[in-house]
Structures are given as structure tokens and as C-alpha cells.
Amino acid sequence: MENLTREKEFQAKLDREVKIEPKDWMPDAYRKTLIRQISQHAHSEIVGMLPEGNWITRAPNLRRKAALLAKVQDEAGHGLYLYSAAETLGVDRIDLEEQLLDGTAKYSSIFNYPTQTWADIGAIGWLVDGAAILNQVPLCRTSYGPYARAMVRVCKEESFHQRQGYEIIMTLAQGNEAQKKLAQDALNRWWWPALMMFGPSDDNSKHSAQSMAWKIKRFSNDYLRQDFVDRTVPQAEYIGLSVPDKDLKWNDERGHYDFGPINWEEFYNVIKGNGPCNRQRLKTRNASFKAGAWVREAASAYADKKASRKEVAA
Ligand code: FAQ
Question: Do 226 and 150 contact (CB within 8 A), yes or no?
Fold first, then answer.
């Protein structure tokens, strides 16, 4: 009975758009859903550093290299804010990290595709960060305070990322024939995986209804995917690239683009661990975790030393 009243009060709070803070009462399932989503999001940011990191040493000039380095570092920062936000829900970051390393945690499907050419760096910024912004701007109003606040800064940085990607693609698309071909080829390979980033169709999204009732999610997967298509197609047209979808067509009646069917078999295959780079991504993260052990040990030895000094002084 007491729990029922608490749940009612909790929902009433959400309905009044009051943020839930770490020490507030919350249903266990709300906490669990947030830990799942925030940690998957954090893992995505960290694994997301790998496809682009692959091109830091091969960026075509100093300006491009500086921007790419800054972008990849920003993604690390996003991971850190998100792990911290997850920790406010009573989990340990190391446990979350272990779930990523042993392959039991999910991260975004998009980061299991390879970056084959420099144009892919443009496509990631333009399409992947573009999709991430559309998904994450509404998360600035998510009901859990620490997650919403982390998202504000993340979104500002994602905007710069999207701009730098679009500028790379635009430069290539306006270059010589070979450069234009690189840009078109990158769009061909990243378009469909970018649409998949928004998650399963609304009919198959098992968490959406509850997450929307809890105001964790503000819009459904399909709504955001459609918004992405509507905004991105004119951007492709503007730079003279064609979206690889023969069914893509403006629908006057709906006021939206119609687009072709998504290959959900590919999506589920990737999130089950069988995408083109899943194994490589986990191998790299595991190696880097191992190589960083001395940093974690040194940091905790330093923290212990500082704490014991404080004790003596007291
Ligand atoms: N990949 O019921 P739903 C970025 C899973 S950050 C893998 O619809 P939900 C920045 C889902 O987890 C990109 N798995 O789930 C950047 C669930 O599995 P579970 C990440 C996916 O949570 C740019 C199952 O399918 N962004 O790109 C995917 O309501 C460039 C059923 O799905 C976020 O995480 C997927 N694409 O909706 C970094 C944003 N989609 O847990 C570097 C926050 C779904 O039951 C470079 N997250 N699944 O085993 C969200 O908005 C939501 O969690 C969704 C999924 C929309 C991703």
C-alpha cells in the first residue's frame, strides 16, 4: 500500500515536470532502466572513440587533425559525465565497465562498422553525431536530474562535432571526381546504420512505452528517425550527394519523407555481437583497460595517501 502511494506521488512529480534527484525515492524499475540506458550510452561514447581514433594519425592536414583530436577527446568526456551520472544511482563504474569488457553490456550498433576512408570521418560527424543530437536534445529534459544536466553540455559539443563532419563531407563533395566519389561512398555505407541508431521500430521497442511514461524518453524511436530523415535529406541534396534509398520520396500529405524498409536482421545481428567490428572493438577496449591498470593503481594509491595525511592532521 505504502509503495503504491509512493509510486503515485512519484508519477505526479513527473507529471509536474519536477526532476528526480539521486536521494529522492524512485521505483526500482525506474532506477534499473536509467542505469541500463545511461550505462549503454556511456559505453557508446567510449567505444565510439575507436572508429574515429583510427584516423587521427592519418588526418589530411593539421587543422583536420586538431579538430578530430578534440572531438575524440570530447567523446571520452561524455563517457565520464555519463558514468558519473550512472553512479548517482548507486552502481559502481568499475562494474559497468566490466560488463562492457566482457560483452554483456550493449553499446550503440553504429560503432561496429569500420572507418575505411577519410570520408567516413565526415560521414560520422554529419550522420552519427547528427543522429545523436536529435536523440539527445530531448534527453536534456529527461526526468532524472543528473542525466539531464550531463546532456546539456554533451549536446553543445555534439553540435560542433556535427558541423565539423558536415564540413569534411561538403569539402569532399565539392572536390574532384575521386573526392566526390569518396563522399558518396561514405554516405552509401553509413546511411542505413545511422537510421538503425534510433533503435527498433516503435512496434518492437520493448522499453519505449514505460520510458516515455517516466519521461526518461521524450520521443519514440520512429519519431526521431523520421525527424532525422527529414532534416538530413536536404543536407545531402545541398552538397550534391544522393541518399542510397530508391524508395525515398517527399510525401506532401504527411509532410515527411517516405523511406524504404530498414534491414532489421542486420541491426539485431550487430547488437548480438556479430557486426563487422564487434570483436575488434571489445578486443581493443580490453587491451586498453589492461594497459591502463597502472594509472588506476597510481590514482588510488595517491588517494589513499592523501586520505591518511588528512587523518593524521585531524
Ligand atoms: N544499438 O526498447 P528499445 C553517440 C537495444 S551516442 C545497440 O527501443 P530503449 C555519440 C536497447 O538497448 C549513441 N542497442 O530500447 C557519439 C534494448 O536492449 P536491452 C548512443 C540498441 O533503451 C557520436 C533493445 O535494443 N546514444 O552516438 C540500439 O528504450 C560519434 C530494445 O530497444 C544513446 O545511448 C542501438 N542503436 O531505446 C560518440 C542515447 N537501439 O537494454 C562517438 C540514449 C536499441 O533491453 C562518435 N539512449 N538498442 O538489452 C536512448 O535514447 C535509448 O536507449 C535508445 C534505445 C533510443 C538507444
Answer: no
Length of the chain: 314
| DSSP conformation letters of 35-66 | HHHHHHHHHHHHHTHHHHHTTGGG-SSHHHHH
Cell reading at 287:
587491451
Is 36 touching ligand 1 by the criterion CB < 6 Å? yes
Average pLDDT for 304-311: 90
Of 50, 68, 78, 108, the residue with max ligand 1 atoms within 8 A of its CB, to mutate for a pocket test, comes to 108
Which is nearest to 108 in space by CA: 148, 139, 135?
135
Around Cβ 128, how many Cβ atoms within 10 Å? 26
> 198 CA distance to ligand 1 centroid (A)?
7
Which residue is it, cell 520493448?
206
User: CB–CB of 20/144 below 8 Å?
Assistant: yes
Ligand 1 atom at minimal distance to the Cα of residue 129: 23
Cα–Cα distance, 24 to 26 (Å, whole number): 6
pLDDT in tens, 30-82: 999 999 999 999 999 999 999 999 999 999 999 999 999 999 999 999 999 99
DSSP 123-186: HIIIIIIHHHHHHHTGGGG-SBHHHHHHHHHHHHHHHHHHHHHHHHHHHHHTS-HHHHHHHHHH
Residue 221 Cβ < 6 Å to ligand 1: yes
Please work out whether the CB of residue 75 comes within 6 Å of at least one atom of ligand 1.
yes
Atom of ligand 1 at shortest range from CA of 197 = 36
